[in-house]
Hints:
The chain is 11% helix and 42% strand. The protein is mainly beta and 169 residues long. Residues 116-155 have low confidence and may be disordered.
Amino acid sequence: MASYNRVVLVGNITRDIELRYTPGGMAVADIAIAVNERRKNQSGDWVDEVSFIDITLFGRTAEVASEYLGKGSPILVEGRLKQDRWEQDGQKRSKLKVICDRMQMLGTRAEGAPRGGGSASASSPSQGGQTPDESYGYSEGSAATATAGAGEANPTGSSPSYEEPDIPF
């Protein structure tokens, strides 16, 4: 029988991120996000239902998250569910959490300002899951521009490689 284990969540980080390292040098960050669902109850009133989900980030994703995100920052997480099992005081316990494969920072700089000393720009889901360091060149006081190619980064702008299409109307 085939199985499929994928989770995509958008929510806000509930506490500041604490980064730690394994003995092998791998960065690990455990975070929790709050995901809100708004629905009408039986009396017709709108009710917000909040779910708190634990997420584990690894490697460069954990380092970027701890540097640029903090409590209240909006985030998109894609990953897989994992069930942790343990025994405490003779009782078996378990908890579902998400192992993050891809993290995307959302919002604006004012909503989730970087905690580190560097300048950063907010990301959008269309950037293909790259970290800000991989997909943007940063310079103090200027807007971030994509490093892929001037024509791709600015398709309707004044880039030297931009050619105006010949539209027949």
